[in-house]
Amino acid sequence: MAPNVSVNVSPSPGFCVKSTSLQSARLTKSEPNPTRISVPQGRKVFINIAWSRDVPPSPEGAEEAIELAIRGNGPVEQDTKDMISVFVSEGREDTDKAGKPSLVFDCIYHTSLRSRALKDVEFKSFLIELALLRIESQASLSLSRTLGTPNIPSKGVLKSRPVSIPASLFPPGHHHYLPVIENPTQPLIEEVVTGTAISPNHGVSMSATPLDSGVSKGGAEPNDMALETPTWAWKQEGPQIRITVQVPKLTHAAISSATLDLEPRRLTLLIPSLYSLDIDLNLTDAALGQALFRSGAGPHGTEQALMLKRARDLNVDGARAEWRIKDRCLLILA
User: Fold this and answer.
1) Cα 135 to chain centroid, rounded
2) DSSP category for residue 168
3) How many whole angstroms from its chain centre is CA 216?
4) Are 91 and 28 within 8 A, CB to CB?
5) Do 132 and 286 form a contact (C-beta atoms < 8 A)?
6) What is the DSSP letter of 147?
7) Torsion sign over Cα 257, 263, 267, 268
8) Peptide bond into 150 cis (omega under 30)
9) In this structure, how many other beta carbons lie within 10 angstroms of the beta carbon of residue 218?
10) N or C: the chain end with fewer CB closer than 10 Å?
11) Residues with Cβ < 8 Å from 121, sequence gap 6 or more?
12) Taking the CA of residue 220 as centre, how many other CA atoms within 13 Å lie in the half-sphere pointing to its CB?
């Protein structure tokens, strides 16, 4: 079994750019203690571009897409297999030289990109733009493209941080590479209520068999935006992707009307009157982050989605979904 690799990413400083927030926002900071950071319009934002060999290197085929983006013949946001991995820290509060409040983000790329960034101005600008897009997606900020270049390698001290990374992003020969073990032994699934049915269009649709004959089948569809977005997480288990959706308010009656639609790049769950979850991995990073932010998914949900987007497509043909009533969760193996 090959779970996500737990990596302690140790960055070394590269260079720093300075932007400003274009509109007010509120950020959630989870470490060391959960807090909310108010970001007014015009707040100075420092972006540390850093390097680490613990970040997955660019996959094969990425160079052509990068060149298209640099030359202006393609968008910065390409299909995930052609993108550069960059890890973005949570925003942290600091002050500028004048003692005024500011915000700092660390954006960490693989060390192999450093030498080209030092010699190629267009490539350096590409990395900066990609970092800005990822910050906007992860933190739901809007950042100015009028940039300053402070004469410092980094704003503040860069610290090591633990990151959970899909093993599939590391190529053979990398020091974090883990081979995938075929046909792993699967753990027992307790209190299974239903399985999945595979539809002809290669999507998976799942609905539970009614457990209560008194449950009404009619009525208007609920407003998805008014429903709670459940917390969820995923990890690689051998050849399978395991997605766990936490639904603490789940009842037997609610299961009877729940629906799950699964496509190679999208997951949609609806439990009427309780939960709604839509993870569309076809979207660009920025659009995906904005959609999840509007739904109330929070920074953790956005980070999970962006990491899942960089893994393989969901295996729809071999997928199955099961309710775990005791644990109040939905388990999806794809």
Assistant:
1) 12
2) G
3) 37
4) no
5) no
6) -
7) negative
8) no
9) 4
10) N
11) none
12) 3
Q: What are phi and psi of 282, to 5 degrees?
A: -75, -20
Give the distance from CA 326 to its chain's centroid.
28
Q: How confident is the model at residue 198 (pLDDT cuts 50, 70, 90)?
A: very low
Q: Structure tokens of 322?
A: 């099961």
Query: Any idea how long the chain is?
Result: 334
| Helix, strand or coil, per DSSP, at residue 107 | strand
The Cα–Cα gap between 109 and 106 comes to 10
- Give the tens place of pLDDT for each residue, 308-319: 888 888 988 888
Q: ∠ at Cα 90 (84, 95), nearest 5°?
A: 115
Distance CA(70)–CA(123), nearest Å, equals: 7
Q: Which tokens go with 195?
A: 């399985």
Q: Which of 113-122, 180-189, 293-302 has the highest mean pLDDT?
A: 113-122
142's tokens: 């809007």
Instruction: Classify the phi-psi angles of 215: left when phi > 0, otherwise alpha if psi is within -120 to 50, otherwise beta.
Output: beta
Residue with tokens 């925003």: 91
CA distance 198 to 261: 10
Distances (CA, A) of 310 to 135, 147, 334: 16, 28, 15
Q: Which residues contact 169 (CB under 8 A, 6 or more apart)?
A: 56, 59, 85, 310, 311
Rounded-to-integer distance, Cα 221 and Cα 224, Å: 9
